[in-house]
Amino acid sequence: MSKRNLYYICLVLGIFLVIFTEFQDNPDLVLQIGGFSLLMLALYQLSKGVKEFPTKDSYIESEEEE
Questions:
Q1: Is 11 among the domain residues?
Q2: Residue 64: inside a domain, yes or no?
Q3: If you placed Cys at 14, which of 9, 38, 53, 60 could pair as Cys (CB 3.0 to 4.6 Å)?
Q4: Number of structural domains found in the chain
Q5: Alpha carbon of 16 to those of 20, 21, 54: distances in Å?
Q6: Rg of the Cα trace of the chain?
Q7: Contact, 43 vs 50, CB < 8 A?
Q8: Taking every pair of C-alpha atoms in the chain, what is the biggest distance, in angstroms?
Q9: Range of the domain at 17
Q10: What is the pLDDT of residues 5-17, one digit of tens each?
Q11: Angle ∠(14,18,22) on CA atoms, nearest 5
Q12: Quick check: is 33 in a domain?
C-alpha cells in the first residue's frame, strides 16, 4: 500500500470520526480531536502531492513583435 492510499484512508476515517461524534448525545472530545487531527494530517499530506501549475510565459519572443 502506498503512502497516498494511507492518507486517503486517514481522510475517510477522520471524516467518519468527526461525523460520528457530532451526532452522539454525549460526544467524546478525544474522538473529535482525533478525527480532526487525522483529517488535517491527511489533507496536509495530500496537498503536498499536488503539483504546481507551470508559469504562463509570454508568447512574445522579442519586443519587435509587440
A1: yes
A2: no
A3: 38
A4: 1
A5: 6, 8, 36
A6: 21
A7: no
A8: 72
A9: 3-48
A10: 999 999 999 999 9
A11: 170
A12: yes
